[in-house]
């Protein structure tokens, strides 16, 4: 059984832990700014990910940034990858369904249980595909975006970098969502969304 170190230890990391369990990989330790009093999986605390003692173990084990916030996840990723040469693996649940022609990046992508990724879609690095979301044919989800639980991206949808599409949202076929966008839970997106916008509702405004 492979051994994993996670960076970040709160609600999102609990889901990540279950994903690794589903593919017979064991999370044995975590890094965080402080040691957590709530430790439901009895993980070893290694300190902050930039501490010398933690870095030594990160360099010799597989690791994953288990943080749901896009900006924080990206900041840690960009510090670890180019500056410290840490290798980050993907977390892909055994009960997800990924078409063979879909293109999945190779670094710190989370794909939860029940996720469906259909033909010719592209999932870039640092992306979260949360529980039961559907990413239809030829969609592109760019770096560090977060697709919420139960969300449906119809065909040819693009979701820009660092964007968040909330739980249960539906995005019409062919829509382009810009970078740093927030789409509220349950929204129905029928028009393109520019960078840095926040939209919600049915239709989303």
Helix percent band: 10-25%
Number of H/I helices:
3
C-alpha Rg (nearest Å): 17 Å
- Please describe the biggest sheet, giving its number of strands, its sense, and whether it closes into a barrel: 7 strands, parallel
Number of strands: 22
What does this molecule look like?
The protein has helices spanning 11-22, 52-60, 70-84; strands spanning 2-7, 25-31, 44-45, 62-65, 91-92, 97-98, 103-104, 110-111, 116-117, 122-123, 128-129, 134-135, 140-141, 146-147, 152-153, 158-159, 164-165, 170-171, 176-177, 182-183, 188-189, 198-199. It is an alpha/beta fold. It has a 7-stranded parallel β-sheet, covered by helices on one side. A 6-stranded parallel β-sheet has the order 6-9-12-15-18-21, with no helix packed on it. Strands 7-10-13-16-19 form a 5-stranded parallel β-sheet, with no helix packed on it. The longest helix has 15 residues, at 70-84. The model has no long low-confidence stretch (mean pLDDT 96).
Quickly list its features:
3 helices; globular; alpha/beta; 205 residues
């Amino acid at each position: 059984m492979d051994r994993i170190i996670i960076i970040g230890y709160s609600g999102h990391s609990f889901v990540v832990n279950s994903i690794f369990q589903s593919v017979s990989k064991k999370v044995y330790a975590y890094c965080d700014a402080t040691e957590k009093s709530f430790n439901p999986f009895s993980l070893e605390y290694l300190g902050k990910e930039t501490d010398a003692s933690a870095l030594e173990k990160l360099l010799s084990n597989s690791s994953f940034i288990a943080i749901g916030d896009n900006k924080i996840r990206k900041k840690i990723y960009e510090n670890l990858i180019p500056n410290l040469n840490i290798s980050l693996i993907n977390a892909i649940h055994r009960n997800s369904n990924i078409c063979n022609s879909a293109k999945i990046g190779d670094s710190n992508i989370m794909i939860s249980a029940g996720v469906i990724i259909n033909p010719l879609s592209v999932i870039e690095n640092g992306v979260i595909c949360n529980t039961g979301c559907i990413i239809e044919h030829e969609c592109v989800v760019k770096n560090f975006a977060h697709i919420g639980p139960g969300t449906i991206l119809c065909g040819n949808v693009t979701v820009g970098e660092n964007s968040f599409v909330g739980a249960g949202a539906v995005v019409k076929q062919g829509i382009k969502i810009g970078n740093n966008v927030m789409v509220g839970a349950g929204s129905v997106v029928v028009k393109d969304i520019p960078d840095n916008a926040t939209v919600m509702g049915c239709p989303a405004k």
